[in-house]
Structure formats: structure tokens, C-alpha cells
């Protein structure tokens, strides 16, 4: 719980944010400072109009005031570009997550007004519940929705944008010029139309930090009014659905029961620390439904993973890395199998998509590692469930992947003469270190990358295990021999001069000796190509030069190319993205590697700093990246799937060991 020690200080409260999601790509977001928006992505309804994408900001905020006794209290805050901040936050006394539901309490003299915000699972519907929790007199409320219709990546809407409005029995129906219908309803308040006015100069301070346009306008056209007696509740509903429920208390009970079930399913984490259990709710926020078009013209409802909120879509690499933690560690094996089947439908030339772009674009296949992580994810699911049917169903596609890699596929991805996997072309980024600004690939890794070939070796070993399981004797020998060839050739990554592994060998400029965390995957992966002494040397080098409290730096500080602070415009940020910035997800491979080399108890200690981080940035979740330099400030996406997943995966792994 946060009190006035944070909520009463704008700088502290504005750096902390909340999110609620709907399992279909939609979300609502705000800051702890009385929901003051600090990003263009903040609002009460960012609907996924073509789920899980097509995300469109429709309700950008709510101006709220309350009258109690003879005094009026502002209950919302907005910032303008000249530094003015409306004062609603001064009446905010506490804020906390109840499960995954943002819960705030405002004080009005001796009265307390409670506020909860959540979304209906699977629906573009946001609920806001206000409850008169304490006080002897009624509270009179006025609530003015601020409206828009823009892609969530944009900040502007045409000044001539004019939706139409039609009265409903319990609110109003807004129809936008694009034809989107938004129902604004209440179970207790009444709607009053007003002349349309623009609320100008709403300031998004985080967009200024990111080098994007930082102000916006929102349209105000009316207000809800209500009087709450002591103990009474009021619900506001914002929805693109045709018939959303207006029973707020029943909707709240449904969501609380759903969240309770999530925690019950996560039996493997029952002995975990409380902050790890909180991540069970965070993990659920990334799961989204995705419709798959089958060859016969029919559709199949599958599942995928949003890589991070608010700006990422579903990415292949992130999905496969995150799957063991998001789903297997939380007891959702059936959903994990659905994710694997969903993505398998998009295999093309032996490759999984790198990502699904926003609406109207085809999947992008510029990744060398997403497909290799697919083997790791399937292995994890099978080990936990014994689902041999899943393995049998996907086995032909796994063999097809190997076939394509042997003869060569996109972007010069192919098996070399030594059976290591080489990949890359000029101006193309294929590994997870994929920052690119215009034609500048910031971290070029053409050639044979250290983690790619560790994953390649493990994939061959895994496929050999599956072949044995299914009785495919010919394939057993084929993949055993291939893996042995990779293991022999992999010794070339060792640099006796440096005492760790080269990051890339046989690249355009020879071997790359930059000290990066990628080599940790050669230790942590299911089948390691390293002997014990080499594994220990890798862990020690990474620990001494790359480890921070919240993950591992992407480049050692002594390297001339090191950049330890993330910020500025897109070019400046991309320049540092993989050149020293700390990545939260890398704590997972590091913990797994340490547990192999030094034991479980030492490995377990690296989880603890994240207990504090869950009270910063995206509350209850884990950020994408952090500065490489102290104090390791959180940056980038406040809610990142693989950052959350790796903590969950490691918690279960360490308990099992």
C-alpha cells in the first residue's frame, strides 16, 4: 500500500503507474497521482478493435469532483506543459493493488470515497466503481469523461473530430466518425449533455523523455452526476461492446473470482515469497486471444503473449522465452499448449514470426532465435505434463525447421560446414539485440552468435529426445550426430585470452570479443554445450562485469561502446538499448547458470531486489530495461512479459532443485 509519503509528492507518484488488461489486447492505464496521465497511452479505455491489436484510445481520462458538506473536492489530476498540475491528488490518501485491481481511497473531510478500476475479461469494457466508504452525509459526484479516437501510438486527433451522441436509458452512446460505438453507462448516475469543448494542452511528460510529441487534446461533451449515500456504490462503464453489464458489484465479483483462480492454479508457487505470488497476476496481463485463419478457411481461437505494455504487440521470441514462466510456473499448461499450437500455424520456411505488427500488416520473419526458443518452450511443457500428443502433433514441424536451417532460409540463416548456425546480412538485425535506427544496425551480430548456437545445439538434442520418445529411430541417430558436430565446433567460442566466450565468431570482422550476457545462455539452456570449468568462467565473468540488482548489462562498462543511461529521442535510445543497458529478463539465465555452478541458495538471493522494484515503475510488475549505471533506474516498457516470466520460472526451478 502507498500512502501520502508517495501520493502526496508528485515526482514520486508520477513515476509509478498502474495497468489493467482484458485478455484481448485492450487496456486502461494511469499514474498513481490521481490517475494523472503521463503517457499518450494513458486512459480508461484503450480498446483492441481488431484483437489483440488495433488498439485505439477512446476514453482518455475522467475529470472528477465531489461535494461533501459545503466543500467541493477535486479527485483527478492533469498536468499542462507549463508545469501546472491540478490538485485532485491532494485528496488521495491511499493506493494499492487488490490482487490486480487498482484500489484508491480519497478523503473528503471525515468521509472516504473508494475507487476501483478493472476490465471485463475478453471484452473492451472498463469498470470504475466508486463507494462511499465512510462518512455520515451524502457525497455528490460529477464525472466528466474526456474522449478521443486515435491509435494509441499517436497523440493528436483532428480538431474537427465530432462524434455523435444518442441517449440511452442508463447513459449515452457515442458513435465516432470512424463508426466505433462507445457506450458510457452507469448503474446509478445520470448523464447530462453539454456543449462540446476541447480540453487542451494535456501534458505527457514521459513522451517528452522519449522524444515524441508530448501534448494532446481531449473532448469533453457531458457529465455523469450522482449522489451517494453512506455505504452506497456507483459504477461507470466504458465499453465498445453491444451489451455490457451495468451491475458493477457483480462484475467486480466475477473479476475477483477469476483472479483468485489464477492464484489457486499456481500451486508450484505456494511456497514462494509474496512478491513472487504477486507476479502471478502480472503474468496473466500479458495473455491474449489470437484468431488463427486455417488453410480450409475456418478459424481457430488461439492464444498468444503481448511482449509488453503499452506499446508492444505479440512477438515470437518474447512469447517462447516467456511461456515457461508465464504459464508453466503458474499452472496453466493447457494454455501453454494452445500458445504453441497457435504459433505453429505461422511457421514459414522453417521460421516463426518475429512479431505481429499492428493491423493491416503481415507477420515479420526477421528473427533467427524465436524458432529455436520454440524447441525450449515445447520441451518445458512436455517435461511438466507428459503431453506426448502435443509432441507428436508438432514433431513434423520441428523436423521441417531443421530441414530448412540445413539447406538455408531467409536472411542467410543456414548451417555452415562445421554445423554451427550462421545468420545475418548487412542492415538486418536477427538476434534479440535488434535495435535499428533507419539503416543503422546498432549491434551487428552477423556470423555465428554464441547464444544462437547454444540454442541450436539444445534444439538438436531436444529433437533427438522427441524422436526417441516417438520411436523414430532414424531421426534419433540423425540428430545425435548433428548435435555432436555442433558440440565439437562450439569449442571455438572459447577465448583463452579473455577467459570467456566470444560473442560472435566467423563474422565479417572475425571474432567479436565484446563481453556480453549472451554467453550465459550456453550455461543455462536445457542442454549446455559447455564443460563445467568453462561454464564457471562464463558465470564469473558475467557476474563481475555485467550483473546489476535488476538484471544484466548488455555490454561491459569497460567497453568503449558502453552507454549506461537510457533516454532521449529514438536514435539516442536505440544507440544504448543493447550497448550497456540492463535487461530484466536476463536475470533468469543468470540465476539458472549460478544455480548450476554455485548452488541454489546463492542463486535464490538474486531474486530479492525485485521485491522493491514491484513498488516502482509499473506497480506489481517488472520493467523491460534499467540503466546500466547506478542507481539502475527503470526505463522502457513498465510491464514486460519475459521480465516477469523469468522471475516466476526461476522461483519454480530453484524450489524443484
TrEMBL record:
Residues 16-235 form the Glycogen debranching enzyme bacterial and archaeal type N-terminal domain. Residues 282-649 form the Glycogen debranching enzyme C-terminal domain. It comes from the Bacteria. It holds the Pfam family GDE_C. PANTHER family: GLYCOGEN DEBRANCHING ENZYME. This is Glycogen debranching protein.
Amino acid at each position: 500500500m502507498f500512502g501520502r509519503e508517495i501520493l502526496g509528492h508528485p515526482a514520486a507518484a508520477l513515476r509509478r503507474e498502474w495497468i489493467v488488461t482484458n485478455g484481448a489486447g485492450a487496456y486502461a492505464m494511469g499514474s498513481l497521482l490521481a490517475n494523472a496521465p503521463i503517457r499518450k497511452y494513458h486512459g480508461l479505455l484503450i480498446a483492441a478493435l481488431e484483437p489483440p491489436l488495433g488498439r485505439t484510445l477512446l476514453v482518455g481520462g475522467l475529470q472528477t469532483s465531489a461535494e461533501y458538506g459545503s466543500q467541493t473536492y477535486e479527485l483527478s489530476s492533469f498536468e499542462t506543459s507549463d508545469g501546472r498540475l491540478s490538485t485532485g491528488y491532494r485528496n488521495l490518501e491511499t493506493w494499492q493493488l487488490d490482487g490486480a485491481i487498482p484500489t484508491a481511497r480519497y478523503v473528503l473531510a471525515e468521509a472516504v470515497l473508494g475507487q476501483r478500476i478493472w476490465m471485463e475479461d475478453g471484452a473492451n469494457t472498463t469498470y470504475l466503481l466508486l463507494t462511499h466508504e465512510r462518512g455520515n452525509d451524502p457525497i455528490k459526484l460529477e464525472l466528466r469523461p474526456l474522449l478521443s479516437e486515435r491509435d494509441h501510438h499517436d497523440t493528436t486527433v483532428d480538431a474537427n473530430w465530432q462524434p455523435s451522441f444518442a441517449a440511452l436509458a442508463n447513459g449515452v452512446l457515442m458513435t465516432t466518425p470512424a463508426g466505433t460505438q462507445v457506450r458510457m453507462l452507469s448503474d446509478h448516475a445520470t448523464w447530462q449533455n453539454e456543449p462540446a469543448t476541447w480540453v487542451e494542452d494535456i501534458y505527457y511528460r514521459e513522451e517528452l523523455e522519449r522524444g515524441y510529441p508530448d501534448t494532446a487534446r481531449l473532448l469533453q461533451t457531458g457529465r455523469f452526476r450522482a449522489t451517494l449515500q453512506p455505504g452506497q456504490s456507483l459504477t461507470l462503464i466504458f465499453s465498445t461492446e453491444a451489451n455490457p453489464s451495468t451491475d458493477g458489484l457483480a462484475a467486480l465479483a466475477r473479476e475477483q473470482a477469476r483472479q483468485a483462480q489464477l492464484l489457486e492454479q499456481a500451486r508450484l508457487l505456494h511456497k514462494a515469497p509474496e512478491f513472487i505470488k504477486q507476479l502471478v497476476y502480472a503474468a496473466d496481463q500479458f495473455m491474449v486471444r489470437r484468431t488463427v485463419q486455417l488453410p480450409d478457411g475456418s478459424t481457430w481461437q488461439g492464444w498468444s503473449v503481448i511482449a509488453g505494455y503499452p506499446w508492444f504487440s505479440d512477438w515470437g521470441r518474447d512469447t517462447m522465452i516467456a511461456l515457461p514462466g508465464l504459464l508453466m510456473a503458474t499452472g496453466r499448461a493447457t494454455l501453454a499448449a494452445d500458445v504453441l499450437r497457435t504459433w505453429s500455424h505461422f511457421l514459414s520456411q522453417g521460421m516463426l514470426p518475429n512479431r505481429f505488427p499492428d493491423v493491416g500488416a503481415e507477420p515479420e520473419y526477421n528473427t533467427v532465435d524465436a524458432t529455436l526458443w520454440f524447441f525450449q518452450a515445447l520441451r518445458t511443457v512436455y517435461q511438466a505434463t507428459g503431453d506426448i500428443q502435443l509432441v507428436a502433433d508438432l514433431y513434423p514441424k520441428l523436423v521441417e525447421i531443421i530441414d530448412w536451417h540445413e539447406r538455408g532460409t531467409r536472411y542467410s540463416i543456414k548451417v555452415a560446414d562445421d554445423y554451427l548456425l550462421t545468420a545475418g546480412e548487412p542492415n538486418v538485425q536477427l538476434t534479440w539485440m535488434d535495435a535499428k535506427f533507419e539503416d543503422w544496425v546498432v549491434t551487428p551480430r552477423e556470423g555465428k552468435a554464441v547464444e544462437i548456437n547454444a540454442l541450436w545445439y539444445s534444439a538438436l538434442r531436444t529433437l533427438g529426445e522427441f524422436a526417441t520418445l516417438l520411436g523414430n529411430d532414424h531421426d534419433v541417430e540423425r540428430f545425435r550426430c548433428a548435435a555432436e558436430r555442433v558440440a565439437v565446433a562450439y569449442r571455438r567460442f572459447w577465448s583463452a585470452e579473455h577467459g570467456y566466450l566470444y560473442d560472435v565468431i566467423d563474422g565479417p570482422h572475425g571474432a567479436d570479443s565484446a563481453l556480453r550476457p549472451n554467453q550465459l545462455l550456453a550455461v543455462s539452456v536445457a542442454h549446455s554445450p559447455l564443460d563445467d570449468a568453462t561454464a564457471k568462467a562464463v558465470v564469473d565473468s558475467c557476474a563481475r562485469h555485467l550483473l546489476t540488482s535488476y538484471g544484466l548489462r548488455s555490454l561491459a562498462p569497460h567497453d568503449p561502446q558502453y552507454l549506461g543511461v537510457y533516454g532521449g529521442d529514438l536514435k539516442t535510445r536505440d544507440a544504448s538499448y543493447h550497448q550497456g543497458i540492463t535487461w530484466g529478463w536476463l536475470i533468469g539465465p543468470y540465476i539458472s547458470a549460478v544455480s548450476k555452478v554455485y548452488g541454489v541458495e546463492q542463486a535464490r538471493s538474486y531474486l530479492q531486489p525485485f521485491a522493491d522494484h514491484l513498488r516502482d515503475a509499473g506497480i506489481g510488475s517488472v520493467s523491460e530495461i534499467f540503466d546500466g549505471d547506478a542507481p539502475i533506474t527503470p526505463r522502457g516498457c513498465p510491464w514486460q512479459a519475459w521480465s516477469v516470466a523469468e522471475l516466476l520460472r526461476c522461483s519454480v526451478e530453484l524450489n524443484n532443485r
